[in-house]
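Researcher: Here's a chain I'd like modeled. Treat it as a single chain, no partners, no ligands.
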Amino acid sequence: MLFLKRLFDFYLNSSIHVALSVYALVRMTGFLFQISAIETSAYFAFFGTIVGYNFVKYDALARTQKLQMRRQLKAIAIVSFLSFLACGFYFFQLAQKTKIIAVVFLILTLLYTLPFFPNKKNARNWAGIKIYIVALCWVGVTLFLPIINADIPLTIYVFLVALQRFILIFVLILIFEIIDLKLDDPHLKTVPQQIGVKRTKWVGSLLLVGFLSLEFLYAHFNSQTLILKSGVALTVFLFLLFANQKESKYYSSFWAESIPILWWVLLLLFQ
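Model: Modeled as a single isolated chain. Structure tokens:
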């Protein structure tokens, strides 16, 4: 039983689970926009997420030598290195213009982690900006990257989908920020730090209403799709409603982060 727990923790700590969520959203993009050749973008996003998230999580600690290379961390380093090779392989299979977009989000990731300017902190520590960078990267990698790679025009429909996805990711991050409220540096000025947990939940709830309201702006409105997204929104709302600082790490890092995977599976089952 202890072995299974360690294996599960490794699955979470090595960012494989969050990478599956990103992969699910890319495949959802392929489904929504009927992109048959979606595999390259999906695998690039999957392996790139492992590399990017592990770099963000462990780089600062490693550079300050506060991180001891225990057995699990060595295994995470190996997974990250193999993912880096796989990410590079799929990167060179992307269209030229898609590579440029991918580099832009790579720069955002580096900016999020490394201090580029003298006497300045990295973007992760810029007050209040973290949540927007993360949500923007998710939307860019899971939506715009595969669409541009498939040479699909950037229509109003694309931007409506992008806005909906941004809202969903934003609210999911609010759940993380509530759970991590005691651990986050006060200078980060996360949403719960600035307005409190109760108001954060109100903001998230109103955003979810906006998430559903955008559905009525689609030219090809579909009641079945609305029901599906309502189920997803309700699930996110419940996770947001019951989020608190006493919840275990699995509440956000596994269950809440599984929602994009659930959304993709439901889309495949009912569409």
